[in-house]
Amino acid sequence: MPSTFTDPSGLSRYGWTDTLDQTFTEHYEAGLLPARISRVDRGLCTAITASGPVRATFAVPPVPDPLLMPCTGDWAAVRPGTDPHLAALLPRHSAIVRSSASNSSHGQVLAANIDTVVIALSLAVPLDAAKLERLLALAWESGAQPVIVLTKADLADDVQTVYAEAGVLAPGVDILVTSVATGRDVEALAALVRGTTVLLGPSGAGKSSLGNTLLGEERLATGDVRAQDGKGRHTTVRRELVPLPGGGVLIDTPGLRGISLHDAADGLEQVFTEIEHLARSCRFSDCAHDTEPGCAVQAAIQAGELPQRRLDSYRKLQRENAWAASRTHARLRDERAKRQKAITSHLRTTYKFRDQQR
Q1: Residue 203's pLDDT band (cuts 50, 70, 90)
Q2: Is 295 among the annotated ligand-binding positions?
């Protein structure tokens, strides 16, 4: 049956499009409703439908894969009724994924179907280059467009130096210097964000304050930071999606302490694009950029064109990403082996039963 979704003040406000509507045809025919997940709790999620939010249950398999579980930002098919149930997730066009905080081989989805990743870093503390590189790798790997926002400019002593450092670490990325207290460049940020925007960054970076400014109301909880190190407590305890007054939606996230990569090879290439470019000029295609003759990367370091720290960081993140990938591959092999063992056991039982009936 043709789609009946025409209300521009309904799901279109949350990012619903004609393309999504067309892919939903079979779900319409099954009596399901389109919805966007705004929040996920244990076994429950808040799903925004064209007629308003509902609390929907969803099935959790005995051995759940976090990558396949509902996440804030997901589009879903909901079975309506007195006990709404999430029947299916629509394919994601982008997702921010990090290694699971439990140190398992699974990935953890932080936000789905996002268009803009705002990486918030406080100017009240020294710039952590390694942390910025990790956050950028997550953002680029997601398929969304990163934007770096240096917050709390009113508390900074040397804004230009930090701005220049961030520019070196993030070529091709828009960087804004903001202050919620003074209103500096807040309008410029509002003009840059589009579609679904997610706020990423450590606790105390001012993400929730920035979000409240974009929302035009004090909707997100904020808290103080410690004066000695600029670190804050987790005032945001869960990811939540809310509509922006000028269009689009915003996802606020808890502060990230652990930023472990998960299958982020493409993101790393984008973050360290200058090293990737130099490596093409190395004499050997498998150059490790160490002691090999004709290494363009080492030549750039010797000439002062590339900091040694940058290469060290690149190698560290590559090793971490490769290790995470190897653990994932090992888990998949184990899962395939267990499935095959179960199939074999079932077949043996079946054949034994047949033999007994003869």
Answers
A1: confident
A2: yes
**CATH class entry, domain 11-91:** mainly beta
CB 7: neighbour CB atoms within 10 A? 12
Mean pLDDT of the chain: 83
**Residue 208 is labelled as binding a ligand:** yes
264 within 8 A of 98, measured Cβ to Cβ: no
Question: Span 287-298, mean pLDDT?
Answer: 93
| Residue 204 annotated as lining a ligand binding site | yes
Q: What's CA 38's distance to the chain center, in Å?
A: 15
Q: Determine the Cα–Cα distance for residues 49 and 225; give it in Å rounded to an integer.
A: 37
Out of 84-88, 216-220, 302-306, least confident range: 216-220
Q: What is the pLDDT of residues 310-354, one digit of tens each?
A: 999 999 999 988 887 776 544 444 445 454 555 555 555 555 555
Domains 11-91 and 96-252 are alike in CATH topology: no
Which amino acid, residue 124? A
For residues 141 and 138, give the distance between their C-alpha atoms in angstroms, rounded to a whole number: 5
287 in a labelled binding site? yes
* CATH for 96-252 (3.40.50.300, 3.40.109.10, 3.90.1150.10, 3.20.20.70): 3.40.50.300
User: Is 202 annotated as ligand-binding?
Assistant: yes
- Is 289 marked as a binding-site residue? yes
- The DSSP code sequence of 149-199 is EEE-GGG-S-HHHHHHHHHHHSTT-EEEE-BTTTTBTHHHHHHH--SEEEE
Annotated binding-site residue? 154: yes
DSSP for 9-67, please give it.
TTGGGGT--HHHHHHTHHHHHTT-EEEEEEEEETTEEEEEETTEEEEEE----SS--GG
- The reply, when asked if residue 71 is annotated as ligand binding, is no
pLDDT higher than 50, residue 234: no
Whether the Cβ atoms of residue 235 and residue 223 lie closer than 8 Å to each other: yes
Report whether 201 belongs to an annotated binding site.
yes
55 beta partners: 46
Annotated ligand binding at 209? The verdict is yes
User: Is position 10 annotated in a ligand binding site?
Assistant: no
Q: Which residue has the tokens 């952590």?
A: 128
